[in-house]
Every structure is written in structure tokens, then in C-alpha cells.
Amino acid sequence: MPKFRKPNLRRISASPVLVTFFAVALGLVVGAIVIVVTSTPVLDAWRGIFHSWGAPGHAINMTFNHVGAAYRDMFTGSIIDPQTFWHALTSGKGWPAAMTPISETLTYATPLVIASIGVGICFQTGIFNIGANGQAIIGGIAGTAVGAFVHLPTIFLIPITLASGIAGGMLAGAIPGLLKAWTGAHEVIVTIMLNYVIANFLIFTLLSTSLQLPGQQNDLSRTLRPGAILAPIFGASTGLRVNYGVFIAIGVVVFAWWFLERSSLGFEYRVSGANPNAARVSGIKPRRVVIGVFLISGGLSGLAGITQVAGTTHYIDGGFLIGNAGIGFTAITVALLGRNRPMGIVWGSLLFAALGVGGRSMQAATGIPLDLATVIQSAVVLFVATPALVKELFRLRATSTSAVQLATQGWSS
Amino acid sequence: MRVELRAITKRFGSFTANDEISVTVEPGQIHCLLGENGAGKSTLMNVLFGLLHPDDGQILIDGEPVLFTNSGEAVRAGIGMVHQHFMLVPVFSVAENVVLGFEPTKSFDRVDHAKANQSIRDASERFGLAVDPEAIVEDLPVGIQQRVEILKALNHNAELLILDEPTAVLTPQEIDALMEIMRSLKSAGKSILFISHKLREVREISDVITVIRQGRVVGTAQPTDSEAQLASMMVGRDVILTVEKEAREPGDTVLEIRDLVVRDDRGLAAVDGVTLDVHAGEIVALAGIQGNGQTELVEALAGVRRVESGTIMLGGRDLTNASPREMLDAGLGHVPEDRQRDGLVLSMTVADNLVLNTPRREPFAHRGTRRLGAVRENALNRIKDFDIRTESPNSLVSSLSGGNQQKVIVARELSRPLTVLVAAQPTRGLDVGSIEYVHRQMVHERNEGQGILVVSSELDEVLALGDRVAVMHKGRITGIVAPTTSRETIGLLMTGATVAEATHA
Q1: Global pTM value
Q2: Interface test with B, best of A282, A287, A339 (most B CBs within 10 A)
């Protein structure tokens, strides 16, 4: 008797990449729901569906138009606007305008990639560095101090500025590293608390040291010397802000790939993260690993901070990396989204940057608040952190413990 | 109660774990399922207990077909299961654990402890299961905890008891006690399905033996069949159970332990003045009941536990309180007691695990960059030399069976130049084929002039491997004797007697 096979949706294997992809899709669905329930005209249309025959269709139309417009504006504002792009293509003019959205996204993604890689390396070592933001602030302060005062030609000044950013971040990272290694203090607590200390240290620096812009009462720093600035790749005249920091980020990604996949030290770090007991028995020194990974992660966070300053703002103020701009916090979620792998983090950073940049142009065009982007970002992370839910919703075949789960466990250790 | 499994088939994807297995357990019978790890014994038991659903086949109880969709239904039908890892609440008393979920109550729904305790005492008496109902479970030795599990099953009126590898965690004395309990349960009319791969026990206790290999029943055996016959049925080829070992003159002292004192996690002297030598070309077997300081001794040797006083000399160098790295570099080979906790990274590949403690050594790395080609080639060679059953060097170690995981560790340790090999419980949880393999490998190394310290709580292993047998009790060496010494004498040394007392008795 011939057997008929039921079409089995569960046959699609739940690879972590697929789960992440679906998580992003679900995040957008959640965003759409939020758009609908916060829009008065759409809600009114739904309230009126029993009033006339055409009303239900009208309500559905309204919904799709509204959500469609919002997401369209997000896309055209962060990736490319087909209209301006077509115009540039046909007329040969207006290329800067056509490239502005993608340039903005890359500008935002640059420091985010660097900071997220630092956090991801920590995660892979089984260490939770919640202090990336504070380390980035210290890196920004240290780098600005050098870049604003030192007189050197660009070829020397940029490396020195970046190096002091890295050194500042390493210094800030060394504190929780040393405390954990020698006293067993939990790095999560220490790094969270240090974030507050450092945020206040930033204000102190800007108000009471010579880093403050002369003649100013506000918390505003001097501007970097021109030689310390990471210039826009396409020149200042185009208005495209994407700068040479992109290449620093690419370098960091290559370094992280080598470090995690190819270096002996990275191998030992990963062993420590996956099984600390076996690591110790295998002769890996836990203290060295903790201190080392905090130096690397702190250094990268610091580099992220100074890249932000040297590439985009050129000065720091009291709002530097505070609140929504806290790339060190976003880095934690991006690392999670990218499953702590360099390329995953690149995609995660681009997504988060695009949502942020696109959210701004959506707010300008449709009046839907920028916070929607944050809602989508948060929803995506939530779905990534609950792979079982995504697998169930999309009926994916279960696989063994994914890296996402590994990254989200271990708070008790 | 008569339980019949008829042509049970269970598949996991393309893998057939149980292929038309039929087993019948008669009332009052001790029926043994004998098979290597991974043969499908546990799958079959999980099917019987309602935890897995068979793809094909039937379960009949007293001739009536039944279908369990969960373990609760199996329990109600009179089937009790004692898992390898106990399911007890450690901070509850024995009685509380046994009645959990079915508590006798007084007014206002209060638990009637007196009644619960009494029912335990009654059951203890009926089946010869001596347990204090008021004792707290976490204070009890493993053997007694197992009795609590059995009592729990009996409290649910189990007529058929499934014992899944019940002796794996027990001392020789506890095993004897368990055998007594099984006999008294049998005389009370209970049936027992006993899962094991330990031939001695199987022959001692079973009425009928069903041998399973690779998911199929390969035949039925009698307890009167020889161990060699059972082993060859189970493994599918002839197995040499005794380790061939010619006499060999021991060479220089490679490991010298002097008056060693090591504290355990609670700060007590777990190792309390141990002095022991291991020579080149010699296997010293350290016997003793689990928990008498062997674990701490090995940890001190490996450099992961601080030495309070005394010295450890490795190849003539004082390495007391050296770091694990220094110990490894000085040529200490270490097969840790808990391989998954201390010996492997389960989420990494076989190839990576084979270089776990030598990732920086040439040719596996050059100037801080790993040479993945060399790592892979090393893995391919080790997989071939040590017969590690794995799909590829890039398979995760977690996908390997316990025996093959152990082979990964043994292969890793034996493939670098060693001064001495310290192997803690090297065959725990392994099947006969793997045990045979590990034993032969160690004897081979010894014949090559390697000094080896084997720590084991399996008397069979100690007697088979050791050129000298040291017995440990409460942190001290109670005697160092020849492997020809009788089991009784060594058993007495294990409980603290001196050599004079033990040989006199």
C-alpha cells in the first residue's frame, strides 16, 4: 500500500539563523500592532465597522496603509529611497541624497559593531560585561583629551587618539576584571554600578577640568583637533557622514574572527566559557582569563567610544552615550542577537542602526514616535531570547541547544 | 503480574533504538535486560513506563493490551521505576519522600507523619528494606537513598519494579544488600526488571536474562552461562575479560606522595597523611569506597586542590601545590573522575577536545594562531588509533556515547609524553567492550614502562589491573597488598581494618 506523506512543516530545521530571522519578522509584527493600537484614525475606523457596509474594508485598508507607510518610511529612511535612487541613476545627479539613508545607518552601526564585538567576546568566555557603556565613556573621555590637546600630524594623531580610547576602556574594564579575579566579586553587579560612577565622572570631567570648552558653563568638551578626526569617506562636501571608522569596525570584526576561531588564547577563553571546570583541569588559569577578557572587552568598548567621538560628534557633552545613545547597552542586545559571533554581530548592528535611523525619518514623515523603533528592537531581542517560542510559532524542528540559549544562561555562575 | 512487551519498535528519526523487541516478565521473576550502553535498554524501559510511545508493538499486562500515554498511567497499572539518578527531595525525610503526592492526612489537611512513618516501617519490615523513616534524605548514603526510591515505588503498589542500572552508584557492600532486597521482593511475589551490563551481578541475581544488542534481542541466556558467554552475546564477539599481564620489574619511582594532607570543601582533612609511590612500568590500584578521600587526592595531584602539608614529587621534582599547567607540563596524565565535568567540553568538537590541554603546543599552534589542519590530522590519527566511534573529527563530543567520550580523554592523555598517568574511575559507566579496551590500553602503557595510578571503587577493576593494590579508608592508606589478596581481605581493609586484622579474620 502506498503511503502518503503528510506535508510536514516541522521538517524545516530550526537553525539559529532561521530563528533569528523569524524573531525579526515577529518583532515587526509586534511593531505593526503597536502602530495600529496607538493610531486614533485607525482605531476609529475599526470602531465604525458595524456602521456601514463598506466600513470593515475601510478599516482594513486604513490599517495596511498606516502600517505600510510607517515601515516604508523606515526603509527609505535607513536603506535606500527608490525615488531618489532612480533619479540619481537616470540623471547622474543627486547621488549624495540617494546615499544618505545607508550612510546614516553605517554611521550609527560603526561604533555599535565595535562595542558589541567586545561584549560578544565576553559572553563567549562566560563573562557578562554589562559595563561596556561605562568603558566606552571612559574611552571617549581619554581619546578626546588626547585628540583635543596634542599637536601632531594626522598620521600620528589618529592612532594615538584611538589608542588612548582603547587604553581608557581597558582601564575601566580592568576594575571589574581584577575584582572578580581576586575577590570573586560578581562582574554583573560591579559593572552595572560602575556605569553610574562613570556617568557621573563624565559630568565631573566636563564641568571641572580643562577638557571643558573654554568660556563655557555647560557640560561640553573642547572639540577634537582636525588631525584627530576620522574624516567622512566621501568628503565633507557630500554631506554623507559615513567615515573612516567603518574600516576600524571591519578591522575589529576580522580581529574578533581570528581571535575566537583561530587563536590559542581565544580557544582557551571559549573553553573557559563553555566549561570552567574542564578549563581549570586543562591548565587554563581562570584569573588570567577573567582579567584578560575584561581588558579586551574594555579596550574594544573604549575604541567604540572614541570612534563615535572622532567619527561623528567630534566633541563630548553630558549626554554622551547616555539614555537612548547608550551604545554599550545596545551592544549587549546586539551581541545576543548576533549569537556572539562576529558576522552575526555585524548583521545585528546594521539592523539596530537601521531601525534607529529609519525610526527618525518615520517620525518626521508620519508622526509615529521614534519609540516604535525601540519597541521593535526590544521585541526582536525578546523573541531571540525565547527560541522555543519562535520554534513553536513557526513549527520548526527542534535542534540541540543553540548558541542563543548558551548566551542567555549562566547568570547564577 | 505478568508483563509482556510484544515486538516493540521505537525509532528516533532514521535511527531504530528498539527493533521488534519482545520480553516477557513472569510474576515473581527477576528478569535481567543485559546490553551495552546504547543498546536500547533504557529506551525500552521508557516505553514500558509510558515516557516514550512505541512506533509499533504492544504492551500486555496479564494478557490485556495497555497503552500508557504518561508515567502516571504506568504507575497506576502497577509499574514502578527506580531511575539511575534518584528523584528525591533532599531536604525531606524518608517518609515525606515516600508519601509525596499521596500523603495520609489528619484533620485540617495536615500531613499525618505518624501514619506515614508507620507505613514505611511496615513496608521496611515486609521487604527487608531497613530505613529510618525520619532520617533526612540528603544525610543518607547512596545505597539507602536507593532503598527510599524502591519504597516509593512499593508505596504506589508496584507489582513490577524496573531497576535501571541500580548498582552503578553502589559500593560492593551496598550491592550485596541490594541483592538481598531484590530476593525478598521476589519472594513477596513482585517482579523485577533489572537493567545492567555488569555480568557478575546479572549472573548472581537473575532468573532469566534477555540480551539486547543494537536495538534487537539477540537471545535469552541462563544465569548459569559463563561470563564469557554472556559478554560475547552482549558485544557480538569474543571478549577477553581477564587482562593479560606478564610480570614486570618496576623501574624508577615516578610519583612520590609523602604524608599528604588535603582538605575537602568543608575544611576537613579528606586526605590525612597518605604516603604512596608509583614506579615506572607499574600499575598501582587505589581501592576504596567512594568518598574516602580518593577524589581529593587526585585533585591535589592534578593541581586543582591545595595541599595542606606533605609533598608530591613527580619524576624527582617537588611539585607540591604546583598549578594544573605545571603538573601537565611536568608530564602528569590525568583522566578525571567526572569526565563530563572536568575532562571534556561537551559543546566543542572531538578534534578540539583532543587538544584541550595542549592547544598552544606545536604543531597545534604557531605563534598564538591555531593550526587547525594539524588539530584535525591529530584527531584523525587518535580516532583511528583509539577506535573512537564518531562521525567525524568535527562532531560535538556530546554526540558520542559515554565509552567513546572516555576514549577521547584517554587518547588525549596518552598521546603526549607522560611521567605518570593518574586515572580516576576510568571505566565508570562504560560498557564491557569499552572497559576491555581501556584496561588493555593501560596495561599496554604499563608494559611500555609507564607508571600508572588507577583509582577505582570497582573491586574487579582493582584486582584485574593492579600490580600493587593500595586501599584507602577515611583519608588514610589502610594497606598495600598484592592483587592476589582475597576479596574479603580487601573488603575489610576498605572498611578500616589494618592488614594484620584483615588477614587474620
Answers
A1: 0.80
A2: A282
